[in-house]
Design goal:
- This protein is α/β, with parallel strands linked by helices.
- It has two domains: 195 residues, Glycogen Phosphorylase B (Rossmann fold, 3-Layer(aba) Sandwich), CATH 3.40.50; 179 residues, Rossmann fold.
- Helix content is 39%, strand content 18%.
- The strands form three sheets. It has a seven-stranded parallel β-sheet with strand order 3-2-1-6-7-8-9, sandwiched between helices.
- Helix 1 links the parallel strand 1 and strand 2.
- Helix 7 crosses helix 11.
- The two termini are 23 Å apart.
């Protein structure tokens, strides 16, 4: 099949949706499909650069839009309209797979100009319902252009389906390159007897870094062997910077603020961790970082929120802590560090869950769904 894989988000900055797009496209390419990835791309310093997949077509620059404690970088350039039309006329794709199909602005353009079979993957989840409630009437024309609808989790499905209920949604989860994480070696310099607590993600407010920093400050009252490793782009906000100062006064070597890392180094940080913590406050549809940690055999502490509960079963393959509650986060981290039997149990269960989400399996589900949508489209069904 000839497939256009469209993301609304700027590929210059790393993020979960673009990682999904790149890795799914690579796996489909290995299966013999002709996949072209199309997304905005804005020049940026090398340190912020996330890399591009093969067969990548940059389509416009982006502007940052803030919502729900996070920042989305999307293009708002209407002048791309003729470029999209020309591309679609020239390439004649069999499948146009748009991610966040109702996001501005690129997915809407592709849906408008497409004469292919259109599949949309819905990644988003929010604790509020304002996004689709306010926009559903304006967006329903584009939603009707979809022949197939994928949600990456039950949380993502329940977020979008009430506003666009006319057609069913297929839940197909995010995938993971299981072996890349399962076979990684730790950094020797981090294997020095300290207990490494790892955070991976942007420093957006909803990622909850401030609560992990406060939890670590409370843990230092009873132990002196902690090291917090913070991996990911962006700069700490004022509150996080304040807690970093507190921790540095306790122990100048307690925190490593690493910043963005390469694809080669990321699995090694997971392998070096004694516990991985994702203290997000909400708005998570899935939590790919949880699977990356599980594949590495690293025990997981995560916020007890929608989306994360689709991945973590409490006291089986991870521990769920109350969001925005440093005491709860600190207690969960201490439970892992002080209980080798629990670590062994959660590591084994987590690897089983992560292996179930390997890209080979997920891509097979996507392929099957493409075929289903093409068969329905040939019989005149499922898009209006």
């Amino acid at each position: 099949m000839k497939i256009a894989m469209v993301s609304p988000y700027d590929f210059t900055w790393p993020g979960g949706v673009n990682a999904h797009v790149s890795q799914l496209s690579a796996e489909l390419g290995r299966r013999g499909h002709d996949v072209t990835v199309i997304a905005p791309r804005t020049p940026a310093p090398v340190a912020e650069h996330s890399g591009s997949p093969e067969n990548f077509i940059p389509m416009g620059r982006s502007v940052p839009l803030s919502a729900g404690g996070s920042t989305a970088r999307v293009t708002l350039s209407w002048w791309l309209w003729p470029r999209v039309r020309q591309l679609m006329d020239r390439e004649r794709f069999d499948i146009v797979h748009v991610h966040e199909p109702l996001a501005p602005l690129l997915p809407l353009m592709f849906l408008h100009h497409s004469n292919a079979v259109n599949v949309g993957t819905f990644h988003a989840f929010s604790d509020g319902q304002h996004l689709y409630r306010w926009s559903r009437f304006a967006l329903r024309t584009w939603h009707r252009r979809l022949h197939g609808r994928i949600a990456v989790s039950e949380a993502a499905r329940t977020f979008v389906a009430p506003h666009f209920p006319q057609r069913p949604y297929r839940v197909i989860p995010n995938g993971i390159d299981f072996r890349r994480f399962a076979e990684a070696s730790p950094f020797a310099e981090l294997c020095d007897g300290r207990k490494n607590v790892l955070f991976v993600g942007r420093k957006d407010e909803r990622k909850g870094l401030r609560y992990l920093l406060e939890a670590c400050a409370r843990l230092t009252e009873s132990r002196q062997d902690l090291r917090l490793i913070i991996v990911g782009p962006g700069q700490p906000d004022r509150v996080c910077a304040s807690w970093l100062n507190v921790l540095s006064r306790v122990d100048a070597d307690m925190v490593r603020l690493v910043g963005p890392v390469s694809d080669e180094d990321l699995p090694r940080y997971y392998a070096s961790a004694d516990v991985f913590c994702s203290p997000a406050t909400g708005g998570e549809s899935f939590g790919i970082v949880l699977l990356e940690a599980m594949a590495s055999g690293t025990p997981v502490v995560a916020s007890d929120i929608d989306g994360y509960r689709d991945v973590v079963t409490h006291e089986s393959n991870g521990l769920l802590a109350a969001p925005r509650q440093p005491d709860s986060i600190a207690s969960a981290i201490a439970s892992v560090i002080d209980n080798p039997g629990l670590v062994e149990q959660m590591s084994a269960a987590g690897q089983r869950v992560a292996e179930h989400h390997r890209w080979q399996r997920v891509a097979s589900e996507v392929e099957d769904y493409y075929q289903h949508c093409m068969e329905e489209a040939n019989h005149g069904g499922n898009a209006r």
